[in-house]
Amino acid sequence: MLLRVHRPLGSMLLLCNPLSACLVGGARRRGLHHGESASAWRKPEAGRLKLNFDGSSKHASRRASIGGVYRDHEGAFVLGYAERIGTATSSVAELAALRRGLELAVANGWRSVWIEGDAKTVVDVVRSRARVRAVEDLRLCGEIAELLPMIDDMTVSHVRRQGNRVAHGFAKLGHGAALPRVWRDVPPDEVLRFLQRDDQGQGK
To answer: Which of 122, 124, 87 has the alpha carbon at shortest distance from 101?
Structure first.
């Protein structure tokens, strides 16, 4: 993958978005929600799964973790994940959370996925509406770009924090996880109340 460097910016680089080529062609649908950001979690249509992802980076120590959740068209829990990723910026944590979510989709053969997060900058990067500046962000974007063509039917959208509480709950669990965790079918107790609120339309 060739990346064109526009100009140096201190210790950072202003780089082209490596995901832009992945959002056109080679898929039945690659929808990008360009409307207003949602305030509450919304169910996907039948036949699709929805991934909500989140990254957590503690301000003082910059210790970071990631998490995410897959749910079906009825709002039922399918899979959740959480893990520590060491020291990282918030943007690196968000991108790492998305990358892990896509890895799990590919591993499970899920080809129709609605992707949603509360970090608007990261969502805009995936939509090819923002450029990547930091080198570590660029590396993660390259890895995400390799995974996106394996998703045939993809939608990307932004949701406000209150609509992403389940993913945030998994990201918080990641801080205390000695090893990467994956939950299937049965969610951990720590996120149950948020799952119930979303299912009842009380995620605002």
So the answer is: 122
Residues 123 and 202: their CA atoms lie apart, in Å, by 24
185: left (phi over 0), alpha (psi -120 to 50) or beta: left
For residue 93, which of 44, 43, 50, 59 has the smallest C-alpha distance? Answer: 59
**Tokens standing for residue 136:** 């570590």
Contact 189, 28 (CB under 8 A): no
Measured at the CA of 140, the angle between CA 42 and CA 187, to 5 degrees, comes to 40
Q: For 25-55, how does the pLDDT look when each residue is reduced to its tens digit (9 = 90+)?
A: 334 445 555 456 899 999 999 999 999 999 9
Which residue(s) pair with 5 in the sheet?
15
> DSSP letter at 24?
S
Question: How many angstroms separate the CA atoms of 73 and 75, rounded?
Answer: 5
Token pair of 70, please?
A: 């897959």
C-alpha distances in angstroms, 195 versus 55, 78, 80, 96?
18, 12, 12, 23
